[in-house]
Structure prediction request, 433 residues.
Amino acid sequence: MTHITLSSPARLRGSVEVPGDKSISHRSIIFNAVAEGGARISHFLTGADCLSTIACVRALGVEVERQGDAVRVTGVGLRGLREPADVLDCGNSGTTLRLLAGLLAGQPMFTVLTGDESLRSRPQRRIVEPLRQLGAQLDGRTNGDRAPLAIRGTSIKGGSFDLKIASAQVKSALLLAALGGEDSLTLTGRIDSRDHTERMLAAMGIDLQLKPDSITLHPPTHPVFPYPLSLRVPGDPSSAAFWWVAAAIHPDAEITTTGVCLNPTRTGALDVLRAMGANIAVGNERNESGEPVGDVTVRSSSLRGTEISGALIPRLIDEIPVLAIAAACAHGDTLIRDAQELRAKETDRIATVAAGLEALGVHSEPTADGMGLTGSGGARLRGATLHSHGDHRLAMAWAVASLVASGDTIIHNPESASVSYPGFWETLAGLAG
Ligand code: S3P
Prediction:
């Protein structure tokens, strides 16, 4: 296992074009795979997770050609996927596994989806049960809750389903299952997760009725749908958030992240940092590929603690590890609640974040659905030896902590950052001069 040794730089300066959004990159491949024709996707995220999606889609008989950070997908239509000759390996990517499980539940073929040790330990009942209620035939280890998942594709029944968890992966799995069926599907309940699936399917000509408390998908009745959708993937706000926090906590910093997706279902971290008193300027706001986009500049700030809970949680769920670093440097207390989903991520991020904070000299009180902590009030954190545990967002959160830590910070298994952010370490070195 490799490690990296970091220390606090005197200043942080620069402009960063963050990599393409992970959620949109996955969807651009999966949805275009079943479109009627070819599409070109630029600024595609070439992180390991999205490469897993490409490999799976190719195994389903779809041509995907990589041209640098662009990708050309030749869609085969909703009836054109081919039964794969082997198990589909989703690697570390929950999005790949859950979205493909939904799509394949409604396709006339047998498939098995698996992944790495982390993915095989994550809960899948959240998709398996609703899909079964729609008539899907699928099963997995521990009574359907763990991958590998085996799917015998069948015609999916429509109807309605009340979502109990605000999860875009679950919502998208159900919509993709219905896409290949004949009946419409209405989702109610916790539909307030990221809405890239809704935006993209609508742009591909799929009949979606979006209401404040429901989403109804009518499967296409004509084979020209879904249309292929060429797009430029906006920058990932979940990646930009590392630089936002880095700039806010460092005493001599100014960082601009350009071309970041500012979809309101994704900007909870900006709202929280503003509430903490961060010095943030958003400019050059525009629309790109059906998503709001802008440039975000963050400068050195004096942060105060805050509460992160309720409706904010789905809008910043992936940013909580790095927001915990912001809280660790702030004046006063921060309380994180309603975030039990953190326990089902690449690691149990309540436990792993609390352990890392402790090593950095910040005591936290973990709870079932979050944690409470008192920040250092602007004082330096303590340099420490930290582990990514193979979790990309932990590797990068610890790197941000090292920027304001005394002495050296050693991070084991830093290469896991490339799951969502290839080039992260080089960009960090550039900003630190
Ligand atoms: C994602 C949804 C979120 C998020 C993940 C990507 C997506 O997961 O944490 O990184 O692309 O749909 P949940 O759906 O489990 O909340």
Remarks:
- The CA atoms of residues 106 and 155 lie 5 Å apart.
- The first strand starts at residue 3 and ends at 6.
- The pocket of shikimate-3-phosphate is lined by residues 23, 26, 95, 167-169, 172, 193-194, 317-318, 341 (CB under 6 Å).
